[in-house]
């Protein structure tokens, strides 16, 4: 039996947003393969493989091989106390928790049954952290195509993230090659290749920008220039809270004038910072706060009640950067080299 203190499981929960939300708030993880039935008696890999072949006769041998190991590990290898990482779909965050209960067949839960997610384990969620907390190799591992995989080699990063000191545990990206095992091969249960590619691009950009400090202001100004604004950084001036000033015409006489603050930190920005930026805006000016982290509910409430406030989190800014990448200055494209790729659609 493995030491529960040395295991890290990564589970990609349902694409069904309602089930994923329940898992987050009620404290559980769940996976599919409901057609097999209760996995309790399938206590060897051979039994699990045979059950999957019987339940899904049209599946290819490769699909069966990639799936039976995941189902077996979820039902029979996970141990109470082991760490779980849950990448929240559509979010820049990861949830970290402890396995808190044995495998359970939840066919009595109609929502899980209809959604094909009856294989369940209780989890005690410990902390939600931004993806940028982790190294690129760790994020690559967490982004496995599988519904269930292990990332034991990144246990130190997970523990450090829980303590709030994840930066000191990031591993070098230079030499690590993450070769999938049979259990971790691509499967229809996991994320698709396009999502994986987009996610890794976002992770790369956010990691690079989080290291730039004041240089992030230049990135922001460059994106606004690519969008057609005249944008000037205020570094070295008495900016009084605005890092970038942008306006739609070269002379700066046409409204609206934009006062932009750029935060390269990954923490949550609260309402006071938003109100402070709004306070330096005059009539005809808008306050735009860009953060690589997130915004508190109070900060979002300020935006909802003030049409002159715009909040842009890391994920949204990445999208703007990518949407206008071809219009960026050559120097900026050289600093963050990207190339367009095509992947098969589902």
Q: Main beta sheet: strand number and arrangement?
A: 7 strands, mixed
Average residue pLDDT: 85
Shape: elongated
Number of domains: 2
Measure the end-to-end span. Answer: 39 Å
DSSP helix fraction: 25-40%
User: Low-confidence stretches at least 5 residues in length (pLDDT < 50)?
Assistant: 171-191
Rg over C-alpha atoms, rounded to the nearest angstrom: 23 Å
Number of helices: 12
Q: Strand tally, please?
A: 14
- The portion of residues forming beta strands comes to 15-25%
Category by helix and strand content:
alpha/beta
Oligomer: single chain
Sketch the topology as an H/E string, one letter per element: EHEHHEEEHEHEHHHEEEEHEEHEHH
Summarize the structure in words:
By secondary structure, this protein is of the alpha/beta class. It folds into two domains: 4-191, no CATH class; 215-335, Trna Endonuclease, Chain: A, domain 1 (3-Layer(aba) Sandwich). Helix content is 35%, strand content 19%. It has helices at residues 17-26, 45-55, 61-77, 110-114, 136-142, 155-163, 193-210, 215-226, 271-279, 297-304, 314-323, 330-335, and strands spanning 8-11, 28-31, 83-87, 93-99, 104-105, 119-130, 148-150, 230-233, 244-247, 257-263, 268-269, 285-291, 294-295, 309-312. The strands form three sheets. Strands 1, 2, 3, 4, 5, 6 and 7 form a seven-stranded mixed β-sheet that branches. Helix 2 crosses helix 3 and helix 9 (271-279) packs parallel to helix 10 (297-304). The longest helix has 18 residues, at 193-210. It is elongated and about 75 Å long. The two termini are 39 Å apart. The relative contact order is 0.11.
């Amino acid at each position: 039996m493995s030491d529960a203190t040395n295991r890290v499981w990564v589970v990609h929960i349902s694409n069904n947003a309602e089930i994923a939300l329940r898992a987050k708030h009620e404290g559980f993880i769940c996976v599919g393969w409901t057609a097999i039935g209760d996995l309790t008696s399938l206590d060897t890999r051979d039994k699990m493989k045979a059950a999957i072949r019987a339940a899904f006769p049209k599946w290819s041998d490769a699909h069966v091989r990639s799936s039976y190991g995941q189902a077996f590990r979820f039902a029979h290898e996970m141990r109470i106390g082991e760490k779980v990482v849950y990448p929240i779909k559509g979010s820049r965050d990861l949830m970290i928790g402890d396995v808190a209960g044995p495998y359970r067949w939840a066919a009595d839960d109609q929502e899980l049954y209809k959604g094909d997610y009856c294989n369940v384990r209780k989890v005690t969620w410990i902390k939600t952290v931004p993806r940028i907390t982790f190294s690129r190799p760790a994020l690559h591992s967490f982004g496995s195509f599988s519904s269930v995989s292990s990332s034991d080699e990144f246990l130190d990063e997970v523990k450090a993230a829980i303590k709030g000191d994840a930066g000191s545990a990031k591993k070098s990206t230079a030499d690590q090659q993450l070769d999938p095992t049979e259990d971790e091969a691509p499967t229809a249960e996991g994320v698709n290749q396009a999502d994986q590619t987009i996610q890794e691009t976002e992770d790369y950009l956010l990691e690079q920008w989080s290291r730039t400090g004041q240089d992030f202001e230049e990135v922001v100004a460059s994106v606004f220039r690519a969008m057609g604004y005249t944008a000037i950084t205020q570094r070295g001036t008495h900016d009084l809270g605005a890092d970038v000033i942008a306006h739609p015409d070269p002379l700066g006489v046409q409204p609206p004038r934009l006062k932009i603050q750029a935060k390269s930190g990954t923490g949550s920005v609260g309402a006071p910072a938003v109100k402070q930026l709004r306070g330096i805006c005059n009539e005809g000016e808008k306050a735009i706060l860009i953060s690589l982290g997130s915004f508190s509910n109070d900060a979002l409430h300020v935006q909802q009640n003030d049409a002159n406030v715009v909040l842009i989190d890391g994920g949204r800014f990445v999208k703007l950067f990518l949407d206008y990448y071809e219009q960026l200055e050559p120097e900026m494209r050289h600093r963050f080299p990207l190339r367009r790729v095509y992947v098969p659609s589902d």
